[in-house]
Amino acid sequence: MKTDIRLPLGLPEFTVLKQEITENKVVIQVETMDPPERCPYCGFQEWKKHDQRLRSVRDLPIHNRPVYLIIQLKRWHCTNCQEIFDEHLPSVPKSKHQTHRFRKYVFDMCPGVTISYVSRQVHLPYKTIPGFRQPFKVHSCLFMISARHW
Ligand SMILES: [Zn+2]
């Protein structure tokens, strides 16, 4: 009898390479398949792959287990202006270690509860959580009101 289910990742830029589910977490290795459209510095459309590194990013939990995306992040070298640039990830804010949707999920937990409660629920450091308000300007007033209760 089969007891597993398959769910789409729901992050269209990624292809799933491998997944590991343990009692405590879910680790999903992903990479993008599409090359960049243009060099962000000069707009030129010719480049070559410079290198690749791994980046760990938190995503929405599955069955109350934290989910870590291990992204094989590519860097490109523009053959026109010689600049090196990271690939663009629509689902992950630049220089952040959480997907947009995970940051919204954490933010939506905040009203009416303490930061330390949310910190324990999502297994994130206490100081990380207040920074999640920035991309969600619609909710920023709510966040400020609820922050008084923290
Ligand atoms: Zn360029």
TrEMBL record:
Residues 36-81 form the Transposase IS204/IS1001/IS1096/IS1165 zinc-finger domain. It comes from the Bacteria. InterPro entries: Transpos_ISL3, Transposase_Znf. This is Transposase. It comes from Caldalkalibacillus uzonensis. The lineage of its organism: Bacteria, Bacillati, Bacillota, Bacilli, Bacillales.
